[in-house]
Design goal:
The complex is a heterodimer of chains A (275) and B (51). By secondary structure, chain A is of the alpha/beta class. Chain A has eight helices and ten strands. The radius of gyration of chain A is 20 Å and the shape is globular. The chains are: A alpha/beta (275), B alpha+beta (51).
Amino acid sequence: MPTAEPDLAHASEGTAMSDEFTINGRAFGSRLILGTGRYATTEAMRAAVDAAQAEMVTVAVRLVDFDAPAGKADITEALPDDVLLLPNTAGAQTAEEAVRFARLARAGGLPAWVKLEVIPDQRYLLPDPVGTLEAAEELLADGFTVLPYINADPVLAARLEELGCHAVMPLGSPIGSGGGLKLRDSIRIIVEQATVPVVVDAGLGAPSHAAEALELGADAVLVNTAIAVADNPTVMADAFRLAVLAGRRGCLAGLMEERERGTASSPMSGLLGRS
Amino acid sequence: MTIAELLERLEITSRYALVERNGCPVPRESFNVVELAAGDEVVVARPVAGG
């Protein structure tokens, strides 16, 4: 739910306006979280992260290829030092696998945060709610900051929040599909009921989708494919940044309600040519 | 051989090396301390680009 209002009357683009949201005590000024996958080059990815002004990005965990050139840098070395690295459990099909990925990442020195993904379904990449609940419970008990990726199921979101999850990440539409907020009505319910941040993640295909998510009251969005596969990822990242700002401001400014009938915007008195 | 020495032998010099030994994650701080034994199964992973 949108909370304290920043001084919008004096805000201009680029001003340090405090409209932060916090996850487990950590404040974020940017409401655009980036995935780092699917970019043509590492340089393109970094340029997008910079243009987005992202303060948190996801990374995946994968086996080292011992046949590959020695001394190869890992992806974190291409990222700004002050960006929070959010390890995901992408590839995990069970709770057990997800927990394993998260613990491995933490042991190796990555932040004890996890974007929890338990995805047995390879066609639509939809998350398994049961596996997600199981893994969340275990990881929370183990001291992780847990951000579960879920279908936009308000009851599931509430259950994960009750367990202690530090945010919920409902999908807009399947990962990489660019379908936008197909589940907007359910996301709206989650936003209404959640007392932890709501990050709409997956399926956002255009800046307008991100703006809409923020207008609905989501606290942030996570975007990967739409930026990575754009003709110009740097410009697209900036477009998403602006869209997130616009959507957030629209939300805070108080959106009008949709009406079925028309209501004139110009006065109905003093009409020329009327008796 | 310690895990640190193994990583050096494998020429893994990335900022993050994520290591499991016999199914258990090994804290980075222990890489210099943990001695590998014959038959140990070691898994080495690293952070990669991903959503």
